[in-house]
Amino acid sequence: MPERIIFATGNEDKMREIRMILADLKVLVVSLREAGITAEIEENGTSFEENAVIKAKAIMELTGEAVMADDSGLQIDYLDGAPGIYSARFMGEDTSYDVKNAALLEKLEGVPEERRTARFVCAIACALPDGRILTSRGTMEGRIGYEIRGENGFGYDPIFFLPECGCTSAEISAEKKNELSHRGKALRSMREKLEELAEGILQKES
Q1: How many structural domains is the chain composed of?
Q2: Which residue, among 135, 141, 107, has the nearest Cα to 121 in the 3D structure?
Q3: Is the peptide bond before 83 cis (omega within 30 degrees of 0)?
Q4: How far apart are the first and last CA of the chain?
Q5: Marked catalytic residue, from 13, 24, 70, 71
Q6: Is 71 an annotated catalytic residue?
Q7: Three-state SS annotation for the chain
Q8: Could you tell me the residue range of the domain that residue 157 belongs to?
Q9: pLDDT (tens digit per residue) in 101-115
């Protein structure tokens, strides 16, 4: 198990979630900014997994350290899976999520509840200095609501309605969100893979 993992993101909201979920991994997790890295990586993959691997490998090759990266997004069935892998770039990366969320609600205006199904998807890749690449995926099912609601989340959370909770993912606590979220599921799966890897290395050495 590496002593430090760089997580290839500069998003502090995302880093807060990541640190909470990986708190018991006993590994220091730092962001790109904290690691002093300013490299821009072009995400030109055709899937969440491809984009995560591209980012993780690029930063690992730059630093020689273990690197995790994620690619996540919102898939809306009525829009044939859009915005999907283009979720962050939908309407431009500098466009506020208030504007993006309002635009998506407008696209679904008049669409009945049963056709508003959607999911958040998160793929995580971990690139290790020995060349190994680990990947994991998590999803959170829900539907697109009818209005922007809640201030606890970020991104598309305020329009993502969770029927089992009766509210959007921006209206639940951080602890509950980490339990249910696509990123929480993918990170817990990755944590298990890293723990299994570390256990296997220890067994070989003993």
Answers
A1: 1
A2: 141
A3: yes
A4: 15
A5: 71
A6: yes
A7: CCCEEEECCCCHHHHHHHHHHCHHHCCEEEECCCCCCCCCCCCCCCCHHHHHHHHHHHHHHHHCCEEEEEEEEEEEHHHCCEEHHHCCCCCCCCCCHHHHHHHHHHHCCCCCHHHCEEEEEEEEEEECCCCCEEEEEEEEEEEECCCCCCCCCCCCHHHEEECCCCEECCCCCHHHHHHHCHHHHHHHHHHHHHHHHHHHHHHHHC
A8: 4-205
A9: 999 999 999 999 999
C-beta of residue 21 within 8 angstroms of C-beta of residue 178: yes
CA atoms within 13 A on the CB side of 29: 23
Structure confidence at residue 29 as a pLDDT band (50, 70, 90): very high
Q: Determine the Cα–Cα distance for residues 176 and 134; give it in Å rounded to an integer.
A: 26
* CATH number of the domain encompassing residue 85: 3.90.950.10
* Phi-psi label, residue 77: left if phi above 0, alpha if psi -120 to 50, beta otherwise: alpha
Tokens of residue 136, six digits: 């994991």
